Amino acid sequence: MPFIEGEDRLQIHLLPYTLDDFVEEENPVRVIDAYVDSLILEELGFQVYSGSKAGQKPYRRQELLKLYLYCYMNGIRSSCKMETETKRNIELMWLIGKLQPDHGTLSAFMKSNQTAIKNCLKNSP
């Protein structure tokens, strides 16, 4: 009995797929992207990075907010689960440009911007 065969994992394509090919035009993730890009985060109370600290460069607040909103809409509340989603969820890869912040970064972002996130959710359409 013949079966439907999947694509060989090692197959090279002449025209490779892009992440945009996997996210439909009507996908809600595009709404999150447009919504966050339209916000003025300083007015909502999000912390501003001063650029004077040594160490790793920070993630853009917009990207972390997009990640948080996507996970919130999909019932993912744990920062560890959010970290896992960044590694396996194609919609999320598209939304935040394949960034993979760790759970400590996500937890710190949510903790330091609690009021701003609430303001963002209150002001959403």
Overall number of domains? 1
Assembly context of the chains: single chain
* Class based on secondary structure composition and strand pairing: mainly alpha
Average pLDDT rating: 88
Largest sheet: none
Strand share of the residues?
under 5%
Instruction: List how many beta strands DSSP finds.
Output: 0
Counting H and I runs of at least 4 residues, what is the number of helices?
Answer: 7
Describe the structure.
The chain has helices at residues 28-38, 41-44, 61-73, 79-88, 90-96, 103-112, 114-123. Helix content is 52%, strand content 0%. The mean pLDDT is 88. Helix 1 packs antiparallel against helix 3 (61-73) and helix 4 packs across helix 6 (103-112). It has one domain (19-43, 57-123). The chain has 125 residues and is mostly helical. It is built from 7 helices and no strands.
Features:
125 residues, mainly alpha, 7 helices, elongated, Transposase_InsH_N, Transposase
List the helices and strands and how they pair.
Blueprint: H1 28-38, H2 41-44, H3 61-73, H4 79-88, H5 90-96, H6 103-112, H7 114-123
Helix pairs in contact: 1-3, 4-6
